[in-house]
Amino acid sequence: MQAAMSVPQLPAEAPPGELRRALARAESRRKWRAFALTAPLLVFLLLTLLVPIVALLQRAVENPEVANALPRTVRALDGWNRKEAPAAAAYAAIAADLGQLPDSSDAGALARRLNTEIAGARSLVMGTFRALPIAGTPEEVKARMLELDPRWGEAPYWQAIAKNGSRWTPDYLLASVDLRRDVAGEVERMPADQRAFAGILLRTFNISAVVTFFCLLLAYPLAWWLSTLPARKANVLMILVLVPFWTSILVRVAAWIVLLQSEGLVNRGLMGIGLIDHPLALLFNRTGVIIAMVHILLPFMILPLYSVMKSVPSTYLRAAVSLGSSPLAAFFRVYVPQTYPGIGAGALLVFILAIGYYVTPALLGGADDQMLSYYIARYTNVEINWGMACALGAVLLVATLVLYAVYRRIGKAELSLG
């Protein structure tokens, strides 16, 4: 009845062209109404998802500290051979630039940025800033600065300024994958003792893969059992599966600290039944991290599996057994392939959530169990290096997009084969 009421009323003898135009106008109004209903959600997603992602990617390649604070110095160093200390004009330029900074916070931001390139730059810049003003001819300014701190005569500090003179830089992204630019601007691998993030990224993927495997191992039989129960019993038990969603992650992590400690319930129970003679090391190591992450992420594996398993007719297994297949072979050859979409969706969801974990490894893991998110938080809150933090965040974003693209490609391939 509602559909009939939405069709425009036209005379019975209306020409076909007018009828088509009326239907087109009605369809256009329907589309605009649908767009108006979804517009608030689109604006919300734009403001809370797309804009922060664009800002993150921009900050990962933005390098404003040196370009904003030392514009004269950057111009004076243009054409410098970067082998020995520059000419006196560069000394006069940096003295003038430092004298133009509004306050010490701007000098501090410049000093922190240069200190990430070469150790000691922070004290060099701040010491010179506190000694301002330095006036005179370029030669006099150079002599005064060298007298103030002889390190101004060393080329590496000037190289750091010249290297970061551009407002945009790939240095943060290169550092996030253990690469860097040399003095000449060529990309090279970092020294072996400075390579860290490639190993941290592999560790993040390794922990996430292990957590995903154990979630699948535990969730598959549980989801299958729930799918075989009557709807009322399955709904009641599903509430128990969803209970972790109603509890704060910090509360759950604190509970696992109590359970896994040397005198905790787990060790006492294992010793009480005689399986172990002394407490196991389950806390502040990889074992504790994996146990807690599996517990937290298990519902994200159960729900996709359960939704897919509910759609698989139980007659398939009975038909396979009636045709001569053993129950076990029928399960793995007939039933399991029907649940591949749920396995893929659950594994992808758990893995993507796991690679971004921070609180659980930080509280339950040791120094060698921290994932990439821990270092993003460290660069944000401790090092105050937003560029590096955003570069590491961009690495996680790219990894997530690549995983999703691989999942989509695999899913399309399975559909085409099916």
From TrEMBL:
**Localization per Swiss-Prot or TrEMBL:** Cell membrane
Please state the protein's primary subcellular location: membrane
Which keywords label this protein? Cell membrane, Membrane, Transmembrane, Transmembrane helix, Transport
Gene Ontology terms: cellular component: plasma membrane
Q: Which PROSITE patterns match?
A: ABC_TM1 (PS50928)
ABC transmembrane type-1 domain location is 201-407
Q: Name one GO biological process term.
A: transmembrane transport
* Transmembrane spans: 34-57, 200-224, 236-259, 280-303, 343-364, 384-407
Membrane topology of the entry: Multi-pass membrane protein
Q: Which family does it belong to?
A: Belongs to the binding-protein-dependent transport system permease family. CysTW subfamily.
Q: What is this protein called?
A: Putrescine transport system permease protein PotH
